[in-house]
Amino acid sequence: MKVAVITNTSKPQAVDFQPKVIDKLVNMGVTPVVLESDRCIAKNHINDVLCFASHTEVVKNCDILITIGGDGTIIHMARHAAKHNKPLLGINFGRVGFVATLEPQDLDSIDKLLTGNYFTQQRMLLKVTVETPTGVERLYAINDAVISRGSMSRMMDLSVSVNGKKTCQYRADGVIFSTPTGSTAYALSAGGPVICPDIECILLTPICPHSLFSRSVIFKAGDKLTVTAATGEGTETEAFLTVDGQYHLPLTDDTRVTIEKYEKSFSLISIEPQNFYTVLNNKLNERGI
Question: Residue 152 has what pLDDT?
């Protein structure tokens, strides 16, 4: 068995913990696979570790992924995991860790990866298609796709169509399109509901809407949502699309953004069975919410 070990090198604690994970895997008879850029971290295990040049090659050449970091590290790798149908286990070194399922002190329990005595949960992704006069670009979201204004303070007029029919009109600072996983991220801060990740749907949450009656809307997973944004003041929109807080694209009045369920999901591993509502309460209490 080959297990990829992906470390968030911006977190010193995660970097310090990586050799412990590699030690554990080697003692289990498992071959760790790391990024070429992490070779210096794994220098004491260089004869035990396979090093590859890119995230894609690492994922392709492993059976399971382990991330060491926060939820952002998992989100960064999840789209690669989904593309290649590889399950992922997150070791939590983040501030909250809604998605990471293993705490560092529980490292010894990863023995169960060898026996298959673990649990997996399928998490839905969004496919985000951006159509401009010059071409089409596709992005994939684990948490959310956000359309928001830039540095100008003016609000935007946002028009949302569902399956080709105009459905919602907002005057707001932006809108958030979330997966159930992403309902505990930006959408929660914007007043959206918490959705169990077992439910497949698309959550739309307006950001600071100029209306007392604009609320989040939940669409079924099979719906195709299309949104356009304009200032409504005869000037170009200064708007941006942000996907999972990691990818950014400027938008103009000619840009159409389509959000729909991605046909692939990613498998999130937990060593022990997880109750979403127990985890939610524990994490929110830790944050003082």
Answer: 62
